Amino acid sequence: MHRLFVALRPPRPIREALLAVMGGVEGARWQEDDQLHLTLRFIGEVDRHVAEDIAAALGSVSHPGFDLKLDGIGSFDRRGRLDAIWAGVAPHDQVRSLHAAVSRALTRAGIAPEERAFVPHITLARLARGLAAPLPAERLWPPPVSAHFDHFILYESELGASGASYSAIERYPLG
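and the corresponding structure tokens:
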């Protein structure tokens, strides 16, 4: 079985800006450089044949490249306790358009549509026990660094004792 997702890999200037603001939150498990990505669509576990169909379907996605900039800090919570810290990006129009194109391609490959709302973000940390205190957003706020995105990637994720590791399966050009 293959655990797959489709994502944008932030170019180096964005990754460096994010790595520079990480730290100082007790209980946070910060992402490493090679884990930083903006998920366009989580697929989950599929067999080899379905993975091949997905890879082929994503090859049909036609979308122009675009620029994004870092735009603030946010968090996801579960039952009132923070469980993830993320950096936002702007503008949303192009990344939402790419998300929609990827979703259409995956639907053609037989993958059920995503039910959760799409929130463009780059996860910075996970909080295993949750954080009840307010997020120190002012200290974590990234500078408004911009970069051009010229491809998206189909990744395979392997879960391990120290967290997830990601391998790029296929890169798809934008433009």
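(Above: one complete record from the training split.) The chain has a mean pLDDT of 92.
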